[in-house]
Amino acid sequence: MKKLFLATFLLAASAAPLVAQQQILPLYPSAIPDSKPNKSVTETAEKRPNVAEFVRQVVQPKLLVYPAPADKANGTAVVVCPGGGYGFLSMVNEGYQVAEKLNAMGITVFVLKYRLPDDRTQPDKSIAPLLDVQQAIRMVREQAAKFNVNPNRIGVAGFSAGGHLASTAGTHFAKPVGNKPGPTSVRPDFLILAYPVITFNDSLTHRGSRENLIGKNASAEQVQLYSNELQVSAQTPPTFLIHTQDDGVVPVQNSLLFYQACLRHKVPVEMHLYPKGGHGYGFYNRTTKDDWAERLRNWLDMNGWLTK
User: Fold this and answer.
1) Which domain holds residue 256?
2) How many independent structural domains does the chain possess?
3) How high is the pLDDT of residue 266?
4) Is the pLDDT of residue 34 over 90?
5) What is the pLDDT of residues 216-241, one digit of tens each?
6) In this structure, is residue 210 part of a structural domain?
7) What is the rounded CA–CA span in Å between residue 161 and residue 209?
8) pLDDT digits (tens, 9 = 90+) for 13-30
9) Pair 226, 168: CB distance under 8 Å
10) DSSP-derived 3-state class of residue 81
11) Residues 224, 226, 228, 229: what is their CA dihedral angle, to the nearest 10 degrees?
């Protein structure tokens, strides 16, 4: 399963030129919460030219900023959470290429290099990724004028395990994690979830993501807490879902569960399912001539997020 997981990311990350980020910003201005020093742990990146960049062991979380072109900018921002099973970050097909697609829609993009769960560097590894995505939303919202974005038009996009993190951001915002979260809302204004890990239920979860985040011996309470279909409420942001029937890594039922939960709570939701495509393809599902980026563009436009 692990080889299949990596192979799908390698295959998918080979398309399209990339835009260059304009800034790389530290996520925290001073001390990093839920962090403990360990000199033996340093960030590593496996780079294969024009194919993939897998980042592991993130110690210093960052935001990679991709401003929308001035002639297209509409004030909408998206924080992007790459996937990788909470064990690595697939930075090309689920980061840089996403920025390129969304920039073309006039959206300013913040690719989040979030911390991966690690007992060696985090007192509570289960909250480190959520701390980081909430801080990213907070930072973009508080500095909206600097980034030329609307503080009420900040979405979160996530792919695979990054989709789990994005859906956690969209369902756990009422009580932000951390000791001093401050008054700024960390609720995303919308969610974009691509082949997301949603549930930690035994039969449908991606076990590697679950074990990396909450451990092999997690309590039933933790499993329920991070099964995000169980955490949807009427306040969950409008959501766009994409998945494929033949996903052999994260079963399509993950998206179905979140969709059904949104229906129950009357959360606006749109879902597109394809029969083939597997997993880890980012915006480039080569099994169909349909471009799901266009389905996303239509949804964003319909909701007013592409209006200048």
Assistant:
1) 2-31+43-302
2) 1
3) 98
4) yes
5) 999 999 999 999 999 999 999 999 99
6) yes
7) 6
8) 444 445 655 799 999 988
9) yes
10) strand
11) -20
Tell me the mean pLDDT in the region 58-64: 95
Distance between CA 241 and CA 96 in Å, rounded? 20
Say how far apart CA 300 and CA 302 lie, in whole Å: 6
For CA atoms 17, 19, 49, 56, the dihedral sign is negative
- The 10 Å Cβ neighbour count of residue 105 is 19
- Does residue 38 lie in a domain region? no
Work out the mean pLDDT of the chain and round it to a whole number. Answer: 92
139: three-class secondary structure by DSSP: helix
Contact 199, 227 (CB under 8 A): yes
295: tokens are: 């389905």
How far apart, in whole angstroms, are the C-alpha atoms of residue 126 and residue 131? 10
Q: What is the CA radius of gyration of the chain?
A: 18
User: Which pLDDT value is given to residue 16?
Assistant: 45
Is there a domain that residue 154 lies in? yes
Q: Can you give the pLDDT at residue 98?
A: 96
Rounded Cα distance between 189 and 74, Å, is 15
CATH code for the domain of 78: 3.40.50.1820
Q: Is residue 37 part of a domain?
A: no
